[in-house]
Amino acid sequence: MAVNEKSILNRLYFISGCMFVFGLAVMFKLFSIQFVDGEKYKALAEKRVVKDVIIPANRGNVYSVNGNLLATSIPKYDIRIDALTSSSKNFKEYLKPLSDSLAKFTGKSSAYYQKELQKARNNKNRYYLLARNIGYSDYVRIRNFPLLNLGAFKGGLIVEQTEKRERPMGGIAQRTIGYEREDEHGNVTRPGIDGAFGVKYLQGVDGKRKMQRIGKGQWKPLSDANEIEPKDGFDIYTTIDVNIQDIAHHALLKQLETYKAEHGCVVVMEVETGEIRAISNLGRTSKGTYYEKLNYAVGESHEPGSTFKLMAVAAALEDKVIDTSDVVDTEKGVLTFYGKKVRDSKWGGYGKISVSEAFEVSSNTGIVKAIHNAYKDKPEKFVDRLYAMNLDDTLQIPIIGEGKPVIPDPRIKNGKWSGIALQWMSYGYNVRLTPLQSLTFYNAIANDGEMVRPRFLKEVKEFGKTIEIFDKEIINKQVCSKETIKKLQQLLKNVVEKKHGTGHRLYSENFSMAGKTGTAQTEYWMEDWSENKRYISSFTGYFPADEPKYSCIVVIHKPDISVGYYGADVSGPVFKRIAQKIFTDTPLVDEVKALEIKKASVEKEYNGYYSLAQTYKTIMPNVVGLPAMDAVALLENMDVKLKVKLNGSGTIIKQSIDKSVKLKNNQTVVLNAS
Amino acid sequence: MIASSHSADKKVYEIARLKNEVKEIRSTFLEGRTKLMRLKMESNVISVMKEKGINPSVIPPKKIKVKTKN
Questions:
Q1: Distance CA B48, CA B54 (A)
Q2: What Gene3D superfamilies does the entry give (chain A) (predicted)?
Q3: At residue A124, what are phi and psi to the nearest 5 degrees?
């Protein structure tokens, strides 16, 4: 084609036309992005760089009464490895050392890790779990293992951090310290103190603010009118004493293991204030080990058995229908009411004994007879007295799941009352109490009649500043008259002190205790009971017997009866161990009046030494006749540095440098002593 | 404007780093405290000392308090 002006122009028009159309298209697209879809894209962009962030509030700590941590939130780490990201050279080189280190860390074999890691690489696993839920120091250790120390990109280390609730005491008191857990459906379980006070004190309020992305995975806060600062949870100080708790836990554990029992609990309470010093609940697993399974002390109401005789006798004494010196006939150890038999544990009974003896030897027939005679025509009077002593009330403690007491009423027709109800109640059947409720009553007896509510909380603090203090709460100022109290205290004391008492095996010369044993049959309504007898062994009481400081209940369910089942054998030792521990921890204080007796010879020697030390600083003094220890001290404390060599002990008889000689630094002085 | 925005960003990084450090130090502290608490628990001390033939005392310590006149 000839090259002329026209063809060039045509080409030019064509090209510029194309460019114009293209330019129009660009303009159109720009316009549509900006104005048609503008809102959508702006929102999208903002979403990528700005977000609402919830700033979680720190959950408060739970402390013991002496300031030890019982529960706190600390970061825990899951360590994984991306088995694919490392170069084949590195992987090959470090596989063995890494496996060796891991083997040392977990206790599995090195060959296991070599195989597993190789497999993970072959399977292109970029998320292979190495360790779960480890603490910070372990995390630091793993971080420095071969290969992993190369970091995330070269070594494939993946670290995930989560905030976990940790109880430094481990399994001890776990159930009482408790936790707060939310499952995926939003249902929350809240056992123990942590659960009970979680919402009110511990959890705090989460904050909220807008954040803008600024790279490196960081977000920077934007100023935002709707910003909410997080408010950290308060710390709570419980009444638990770590030392007593520790002893109680281990004493209970030992006893449960010895008697292969099903479960058991122990509670220690301060008499005057109702503060719970220790609470331990252990249940057996299928493997025969024990752990804090449920809060039996708070939640499980059961027939208390003989420990309830105290309540029965208290009611009768208060109504003045019996006295401790009244004589009852135990009738060869068997009583029959409506064809049902009450038996004594001692075959043949105890003959004719006083009410107080019946209590001390825990004679079922004795107590049942006394109560039967006193109340057979008006059982509602007995029940009313029990109600007046608050035995039918729940304790209203904050821990969730308290068991309800059952004390039947003859005036209410609900199938709980029967012709034998009164008799059976008097020795602890046909009624139900939780261990904590029983203890509260015993505590009231120890506290001269003032019934106080068991308490778990002492103080709520924020950064060491007190927010709220909890004082003792009185349930009943006087559960029964002082006179009755005195008699009951004497009875409880006799159980341990008197030779015939059921608790006499626990007697110790060193310290005093008072209490009542209980050996209750349980599940006796089941058909197989006669072949497979099951008991609840308990001991409830307080110590010291005269000025009670702590009350304590020990309940052990279903001990192996081939080993033993009596309350004094099974539960008593736990009680005694705790009493002993508290006794040995409390120093006996002897007060001595001022010892300002001056002994002339001592004074004289002291003054002599003092004046020598003041006079001789660089000149050798005469030390002959001085005690060796004084002489050496004197020479070594002079202004010049001397090397003192001492032969013998006692008083100095010879000195190598004469008196009044000027001394030089590093000079040696030899002293001979007798 | 740009410079100050960058310096603000830098501070954010610094804060994040320090926060992490605080967390780590706190958790080492708590770990140490937990360990100490387990070590000093009486049941643990008893089991350790048993090997050496030392048992807890059965009588309490005696405290002598001297009362001075002034």
A1: 9
A2: 3.30.450.330, DD-peptidase/beta-lactamase superfamily (3.40.710.10), Penicillin-binding protein 2a (Domain 2) (3.90.1310.10)
A3: 55, 40
Chain B CB contacts of A249 below 8 Å: 43
Domain ranges across chain A: 55-236, 244-585, 613-673
Q: Which of A166, A220, A247 sits opposite B12 (nearest CB)?
A: A220
For the stretch B13-68, pLDDT in tens is 898 889 888 888 888 888 888 888 888 888 888 889 988 888 888 888 888 888 77
Look up the CATH architecture of domain A613-673: 2-Layer Sandwich (3.30)
Structure tokens at A548: 């009670």
Across-strand partners of A283? A263, A291
| Segment among A299-313, A503-517, A522-536 with least mean pLDDT | A522-536
Q: Which residue of B has its CA nearest to A250?
A: B43
Beta carbons of A135 and B31 less than 8 Å apart? yes
Of A510, A509, A491, A511, residue with least CA distance to A501: A491
Q: How far apart are CA A432 and CA A635, in angstroms?
A: 80
Encode pLDDT of A330-355 as tens digits: 888 888 888 888 888 888 888 889 99
How far off is chain A from B53, nearest CA to CA, in Å?
A: 19
The mean pLDDT of chain A is: 87
Q: State the smallest CA–CA distance between residue A593 and chain B in angstroms.
A: 5
Q: Is the pLDDT of residue A218 over 80?
A: no
Pick the residue of B12, B35, B45 with the most A CBs within 10 A to test the interface with A by mutation: B12
CB pairs under 8 A between A and B: 99
Q: Residue A595 — pLDDT band, cuts 50, 70, 90?
A: low
Q: What is the ipTM of this complex?
A: 0.78
**Nearest residue to A518 via CA among A559, A556, A564:** A556
What DSSP state is assigned to residue A146? T
Rounded to the nearest angstrom, the minimum Cα separation between A349 and chain B is 38
Class of domain A244-585: alpha beta
Query: Measured between CA atoms, how close is A411 to chain B, in angstroms?
Result: 52
Burial of A239 (0-12, 13-18, 19+ CB in 10 A): buried
| CB atoms A592 and B30 under 8 Å | no
Nearest to A296 by CA among A399, A391, A393, A386: A399
User: What tokens appear for A86 in the block?
Assistant: 């490392």
| SS3 state at A432 | strand
Instruction: Identify all chain B residues contacting A590, using CB atoms and an 8 Å cutoff.
Output: 62-65
Of B42, B63, B69, the CB nearest to A243: B42
Q: Give the nearest chain B residue to A74 (CA atoms).
A: B27
A539 pLDDT more than 60: yes
Which CATH superfamily does the domain covering A55-236 fall into? Penicillin-binding protein 2a (Domain 2) (3.90.1310.10)
